[in-house]
Each structure stands twice: as C-alpha cells, then as structure tokens.
Design goal:
By secondary structure, this protein is an alpha+beta fold. It is built from nine helices and 30 strands. It is globular and about 85 Å long.
C-alpha cells in the first residue's frame, strides 16, 4: 500500500516538476511570436513568422524597405492585428489586446512629441494619464531626464530642441513608464551621420543601465551590427536568419543575407568533396563539410579576407586591377581575374588601376552555402501536345511523349534560359525586377511576375531594381515532368 501511495505522489511530483520546468523555459522569453501572418487584402506582409525574444535582450529587426519589419513591430505594439498566429508578452497572450493595455512603449522615427507641451510635460504625459501622484511623477521624470542626459532641459519648448535632443525626449517619455519592452521604429533615421553614431552608443548604454528588452527596427546594417545582441534579418515578409552580429556577418545562411549584410563576393561554386570547393575557375581548400560531392553551392568571400599582392607563385588567382577607391580606412579595389571573374578586394595598401596582382584566400575565410535553388520550378498543366500553362500563361514547348491535355506537370527552366525584354509587350509574361545579385561574372535577378510568383534569371545585361520587363522562354528550354 505504501509503495502505491509513494508511486502516486512520485508521479504527481514528476508532473509538477515537468510543468515548472516548462514554465521556467517559457518565462525566459518575454516576447513570443508564433506562426504570425499579416495580410493586407491579397498582399502578404508577413508570412508565418516565428520569433522568441529573451528578457533584457537587444534585438534588431533588419531588412530592406517593404520587407515587413515595421509591420512586425506594429503587431507587437498593438497598432495592427495579426491575421493569423499568436503573440505573447511575459507568457500572456496579447494578440488582440489594445496598445494601451500592453506592457510596451514605442519610440517612433518622427518622435511624435506634443508641440504645445514642454519637455517635462511631454515625458510626464503617460504618467498623468495613469493618475500617478505628482511627487512620483516629478521623481520619475527627473530620473528619465538624467538617463538620457537632459537634466537641465525640463522647461524647454520641444520645438527649440535639436533632432538628437528631441529623440532623447521621445526615449525618456517611453522609459519613464517602466515598460517591460521598448520598441524602437528606425528612431535615428532622421539624424545626421555623426549624431546617429553618437545616439547609437547612448542607446547601447541606456539598454545596459535599464536592463529592459529593446526591439529595434532598422534598414541600416552597420547600426544593427553595432547595437544588437541578436539580429533578425527579414526579406519579403519572411525571416531569413536569426543570430548574433558575428554569426550573421561570418556565417550567412543564404545569398540574400550575405549580400545585404556588408560587402561580399558571392560566386557560383561546386563542392568537390569535404573541404574542397571549386569556384572562379579554380579549386580551393576550405573548412566546410557535409555538402556531398560535386554539389552546386554558393561561395561567399568578404573583400577584407582576400590577400592582394604583386604576382608570385603564392597566388591562387591572378588578374588586373580595374578600379581603386580610397574609403577612408582602406582602399577598395575591383580585380578582373584571368578567368573572367570580377572580385572586390579591400586592403590598407593601394594597387592602382591597370596593375597586375595576385590574390590568395585562406581556407577559413571561404564560406560555403547550400544553394536555395538550381533552376526555376513551377507547377503547370498541359494545354495540348506542345503547349503548357504556368505562371498564368500558355507557353509553347516541344512535343511531349506520354503527356496529354489536362496532365499536371512540373516545369523546369534554367536561369540562363529566361530572356528579359526592355519592351513589356515583347514578352509572353511581364514582371518587375526586385532583387539583383552580382555573382562575379553575371547578374542573378529575381523578377516578380504579374502572376505573383518569382522567376529567377541569370544575365550579363544590366538592369535596375524596379525595372518593368517582358519575359520570354524558348520552347526548347522548357523541361516537363509528369506529376
């Protein structure tokens, strides 16, 4: 009997311990965004976002304009509502909770200060709404002013302040309410370069002193690398990578991250075997493993990791400098290799245009990434023996044995077999160039078609982001597999 009772209570203890362990694990995250999507009509602004933020962390959401970073911040703040998914703060679901009931405060790019109130009253505004006692308000406002370095400014009119001072007042107004989370939406974008860099250091110090969680939105890569404990890189409504600044810079997960964070040489390559990769016409030793043999990969080399010197037997590549620009702390050179690849090199020594040089890359400075795709792939349907429908259009293809009208097929087209036309009317399909990646000897373009799907193009022609294009594909370049 005693044994049964002991086992019963032991089971209860195990369940209780497991419950506590689960809650302790969850409590480590102050913000939890789970499977969150946001739609504006048919447009997908956020696509199944999952993000956990630890207490006291400085997290920066980084990405180009239109990537969804501000939309994500506004969902956390409560200014917009998620179409799908759940948002929690401190373990409490707040997906539908109005902004004023959330334990967060937001600092905006345009400050949103009240022009008819002085500095003190701007900062005290939220406390007065909560009917906080006057003595407490005075104490908290003075503490906030001291925190942002504006102790003697409480009686000043906000319109008489500089941009940097107004930003400090906006931050003080946010932190005086002692929020669990401070949200900052590109707060330094309106400042000049020197003031922005000064404010970056002040923000970092403020975060360390306050110990509260900062979630910061910016499109400035240097700002993100300077401020953050964790960076969340976004593109087209999706999270591309989450990691420390060093991880993001040194170990990008895909070509978008590698291209967006700092300067990069991104080249097509082939993983010959573990620790041996081929690119730019040569084989190189590297430290990467697990890609298989003769696998197509993308290779990333940062410009500062390429050694440049006068030609010698030590050179892995040789070429000619085509340009040399002084960048303040280093020289930035473009080198045209004998194999026809253009590489960017950064060095403290100048090698003038027209000079013959040797290049060397050490194994640990070569970063190999799995290719996201090796060709365009779409779902299609046979119209007849030599026409297939995909991307909302009917394309001519070569006569297909074993396929008949109505059959569903997988359509494959190599990147270099998609032709872009200046005149939209010359294309079978139309679209807009939205991402351009230079791969050393050609451009890899992402074209957003009017059928709301991307098509990828390798070309030597120069296009600009936002160009409208016509798209043609020759019948012999369309490969079909029955589904």
């Amino acid at each position: 009997m005693f044994y049964k009772v002991f086992c019963k209570y032991n089971d209860y203890f195990s369940i209780f311990a497991a419950y506590n362990k689960k809650n302790m694990q969850q409590s480590n995250y102050i913000i939890e965004v789970q499977n969150v999507s946001k739609y504006f009509g048919e447009k997908v602004a956020l696509d199944n976002i999952n993000l956990n933020v630890k207490k006291g962390e400085f997290v920066t959401i980084l990405g180009p304009s239109g990537c969804g970073k501000t939309t994500l911040l506004r969902l956390i703040a409560g200014f917009q509502t998620a179409s799908e998914g759940v948002i929690r703060i401190s373990g409490k679901e707040i997906t539908q909770t109005p902004p004023h009931l959330r334990p967060v405060n937001t600092v905006f790019q345009k400050y949103a200060l009240f022009p008819h109130l002085n500095v003190f009253d701007n900062i005290a505004f939220g406390l007065k709404l909560k009917k906080t006692p006057k003595q407490v308000i005075e104490k908290k406002v003075k503490a906030a002013l001291k925190m942002v370095g504006m102790t003697d400014y409480e009686d000043r009119d906000v319109d008489s302040l500089s941009g940097g001072q107004q930003q400090r007042v906006a931050i003080a107004r946010a932190i005086v309410n002692e929020p669990e989370v401070l949200l900052l939406d590109e707060p330094l974008a309106a400042l000049d370069l020197k003031m922005r860099k000064d404010m970056q250091m002040e923000l970092k110090e403020m975060h360390q002193k306050l110990g509260i969680t900062f979630v910061y939105v910016t499109h400035d890569q240097e700002e993100a690398l300077t401020l953050s404990d964790t960076i969340v890189v976004m593109s087209e409504g999706k999270i591309q990578q989450i990691g420390t600044p060093m991880d993001i810079y040194n170990e990008p997960t895909n070509s978008f991250v590698a291209d967006f964070i700092g300067e990069s040489n991104i080249l097509n390559g082939t993983m010959i075997k573990d620790e041996v990769v081929s690119f730019a016409g040569h084989e190189f030793e590297c430290v990467d493993k697990g890609f298989g043999e003769n696998a197509p990969v993308d290779v990333v080399i940062r410009p500062e990791d390429i050694y440049i010197f006068d030609p010698s037997d030590a050179a892995q590549l040789t070429g000619t400098v085509s340009s040399c620009i002084f960048k303040g702390v280093h020289f930035e050179m473009l080198v045209q290799t004998k194999e026809g690849y253009e590489l960017m090199v950064q060095d403290y020594h100048a090698f003038e245009a027209g000079r013959e040089v040797g290049l060397l890359v050490k194994p640990f400075d070569i970063h190999v990434m799995k290719k996201e795709r090796t060709c365009n792939t779409f779902e299609g349907k046979m119209v007849d023996d030599n026409h297939v429908e995909f991307l909302g259009c009917s394309f001519e293809c070569l006569p297909q044995k074993g396929l008949q009208a109505g059959d569903k097929v997988e359509v494959q087209i190599d990147f270099n077999n998609v032709v872009l036309e200046d005149n939209e009317e010359d294309g079978r399909l139309t679209g807009e160039v939205k991402f351009i990646l230079y791969k050393g000897n050609h451009y890899h373009l992402t074209v957003f078609t009017d059928w709301d799907e991307d098509i990828f193009v390798d070309t030597n022609d120069v296009w600009d982001d936002g160009d409208r294009v016509g798209i043609t594909i020759a019948p012999e370049h369309i490969r079909l597999n029955k589904l």
